[in-house]
Amino acid sequence: MWLSEQTISHILKEEVRLHFSKAHGHGGQKINKKRTKAELYFSIGGSHYLTQEEKQSLIDLWWNHVHHHSQVLILTCQEERYQKANKEKVMKHFVSLLAKIL
Fold it and tell me: What's residue 27's pLDDT?
């Protein structure tokens, strides 16, 4: 099955949760005082937009990023100094993962 841009948009708006925490890495003396690390959570089993086959493909391909008991995909990004940049990177990575299962 092919996911439309509209479906991906719905997934991002309705089924993805973002959390921000303190990053550990480069960036200067104030980097550990701000919540710049972006964490993306996506409940594969609870998705209303993916078929069972797509859900299983996502679990099979990205098993090392999936909490297997709850079937939640967890992606993180803390490469950048700014929360917005890390958020954009982790969202872009998630969309590319969806594209790979199709």
Answer: 53
